[in-house]
Amino acid sequence: MAKESEPRKPGKSGKQAGAAPESAQPQEKPPRQVTFAHPSEEEFAKILDFYRIEWQYEPRSFPLPPEDGGALEMFTPDFYLPELDEYIELTTLRQSLVTAKNRKVRRLRQLYPDVKVRLLYKKDYHRILAKYGYGPLGQAKVEGVHHVLFSESQIQKRVRELGREISKEYAGKQLVLVGVLKGVVCFMSDLMRNITLPLQVEFMAVSYYRHVAGAVRIAKDLDRSITGAHVIMVEDIVDTGMTLNYILNYLEGHKPASLSVCTLLDKRSRRLVDVPLKYIGFEIPDEFVVGYGLDYGEEYRNLPFIGVLKPETPFDFEKKAKSPTG
C-alpha cells in the first residue's frame, strides 16, 4: 500500500536499520573520476546517472582496416551501456564531424556485425532512454523527481530473487497472495509472474477515518476464503507498520494455515509497530519515494523505477490526496 496511516507527505525523520540483503540496500557510488573530451559527453553521462543506467566511458577501441589499403584507423565509441549491450557515439551538428563518424560507424558494423553501435545527436538522447521507459518518449513523468533510488533493472532483479525464494519455501502448499490497492499493483503483478507455483491472488482496499490518526477500516474485503491457506501479504512499502498490523490481525481472524509478509520497500526508521517481515526487497532511507506503483497525488505510479521526490515539491491535501489508501 502506498500509505501507512495518512496520505504520504514528503519529509525526513532519520536513518533506517534493516535486515534486507546488503545488495538490496541503495548503494551510493563515489563520484567517477572521468575526464570527458566534450561537454555533451558529460551531459549525457549525467542523464544516465540520474536514471541509474550503468555506463562505461570509452572502454574499447576497434581497429578499422581501410577498404582502400590506406592507414589503419582506430574507432573508440564514447559510451558502452551494459544493460543494452550497445555502444554510443555522440556527435555535434558540425557536418564534417558527422560525415566522418558516420563513415566509421558503418565500417565498424561491417567488420564487427555482432557489435551494436549507435550514432546519437543530442536530440536523440531521449530516444535511447525511451528503451528503458524513461524520459518524455517513454511517457513517464519525471518532473519533481530528485534522483532515482532503484532502477528498473535493479527492481526486476530483486523481484526475480524474491519469486525464487517464495517458490522454494512454499512448494506443495496452497498459496494465496493478498495485496492492498492501489500501490501494490506493479509489485504484485511482477512478483506473481516470478513465482513458479499454483497460486491465488486477492486484493483488499482500506480507507482512513478523517481526524483520527491510525484509524483504519476495510473498504474492500477478500472475495474468497483464505481459511487453511498459506497467505503472503504483499506490500509495496512498510512505513509505520500501523496499517499493516491492523490488516494482519484482520487476516489472522480468517484462520489461514500461515501468514507472512513480503514487502518491496522497508522504511524501518519510521516504524511505530513492530510487524514481522519475512521477505524484504529493499530497505530505504526516510525519503518520500514514488514510481513502480507508488504515487504522489495519483501521479508517478507508472514510472518503471523508484525515485525520491524533491523535498520542496508542494502538496495540497485537499486537491492532491484523492485516494488516501494509495
How do the strands and helices of this protein lay out in sequence?
Elements (H helix, E strand, L loop, with lengths): L38 H12 L5 E2 L4 E3 L8 E3 L3 E3 L4 E5 L4 H17 L5 E4 L4 H5 L15 E6 L1 H18 L5 E6 L4 H9 L5 E10 L7 E5 L9 E9 L3 H11 L5 E9 L12 E5 L5 E2 L15 E4 L7 H4 L6
Parallel strand pairs: 5-6, 8-9, 8-11, 11-12, 12-13
Antiparallel strand pairs: 1-4, 2-3, 4-5, 7-15, 9-10, 14-15
Helix pairs in contact: 4-5
Summary?
The protein has 326 residues and is α/β, with parallel strands linked by helices. It has two domains: 39-137, Endonuclease, Chain A, CATH 3.40.960; 142-320, Rossmann fold.
Structure description:
The protein is an alpha/beta fold. 23% of the residues lie in helices and 23% in strands. The protein has helices at 39-50, 95-111, 125-129, 152-169, 185-193, 242-252, 317-320, and strands at residues 56-57, 62-64, 73-75, 79-81, 86-90, 117-120, 145-150, 175-180, 199-208, 216-220, 230-238, 258-266, 279-283, 289-290, 306-309. A six-stranded mixed sheet has the order 10-9-8-11-12-13, sandwiched between helices. Strand 8 (175-180), helix 5 (185-193) and strand 9 form a beta-alpha-beta unit. It is elongated. It starts with 38 loop residues before the first helix and ends in a 6-residue tail after the last helix.
